[in-house]
From TrEMBL:
<dbReference type="InterPro" id="IPR029044">
    <property type="entry name" value="Nucleotide-diphossugar_trans"/>
</dbReference>
<dbReference type="Pfam" id="PF12804">
    <property type="entry name" value="NTP_transf_3"/>
</dbReference>
<feature type="domain" description="MobA-like NTP transferase">
    <location>
        <begin position="1"/>
        <end position="137"/>
    </location>
</feature>
<dbReference type="GO" id="GO:0016779">
    <property type="term" value="F:nucleotidyltransferase activity"/>
</dbReference>
<keyword id="KW-0808">Transferase</keyword>
<protein>
    <submittedName>
        <fullName>Molybdenum cofactor guanylyltransferase</fullName>
    </submittedName>
</protein>
<keyword id="KW-0548">Nucleotidyltransferase</keyword>
<dbReference type="InterPro" id="IPR025877">
    <property type="entry name" value="MobA-like_NTP_Trfase"/>
</dbReference>
Length: 183
């Protein structure tokens, strides 16, 4: 997308990051790993993975460091999911609470897990990150798929009308499609 800071790009009059944070409006704390725009309309805690740009698992570890020990569930979300809703997060959370699994993610129509659109038992997610780091020696460049090898996950289908909540914007065409859906 031409080097743009994707989370700050607008969809439906709000940045994608603002829209993702609105989907978890009742989360406490809300944590952003990466740059936080000065005009972000909601309070968040922010951090960076070390080194910056070392990947989503390193970012997950950095974010988890700010999650208090008494927080039972953690939503692990990409910042470019402009169509994510509170209802979609509730479905994941309720699934994670009721399933004998460690978390819940959406599965798309092609059967792929949408791993950066999930809700996890915080303790299990921390343990999985620790185990992956121990097995690799370092989290730099670790993929979310590698992390998932250490977690039991419930896969959830989205059967409601409209766009899927995990729709992410990786191209200008994706951004245009999200803008159309957000109207």
């Amino acid at each position: 997308m031409g080097g743009a800071d994707k989370p700050t790009l607008p969809v439906g009059g709000q940045s994608m990051l603002t829209r993702v944070l609105a989907a978890v409006h009742d989360a406490d704390p809300r944590i952003v790993v990466g740059p936080v725009p000065a005009d972000l309309p909601v309070p968040v805690h922010s951090t960076r993975e070390e080194p910056p740009g070392s990947g989503p698992v390193a970012a997950t570890s950095a974010g988890l460091a700010l999650v208090p020990a008494d927080v039972t569930f953690t939503a692990l979300l990409a910042a470019d999911l402009p169509l994510l809703t509170g209802e979609a997060i509730d479905v994941l959370r309720l699934t994670a609470e009721s399933a004998p699994m460690q978390g819940a993610v959406y599965r798309d129509a092609e059967g792929r897990r949408q791993m950066l659109c999930g809700v996890w038992r915080t303790k299990a997610l921390r343990e999985a990150v620790d185990r992956l780091e121990e097995s690799r020696g370092d989290l730099r460049g670790a993929s979310v798929r590698e992390l998932m090898d250490f977690l039991r996950v419930a896969e959830v289908s989205w059967r409601r009308p409209g766009p899927p909540p995990w729709f992410d914007c990786d191209t200008d065409d994706d951004l245009r499609a999200a803008e159309e859906w957000a109207r």
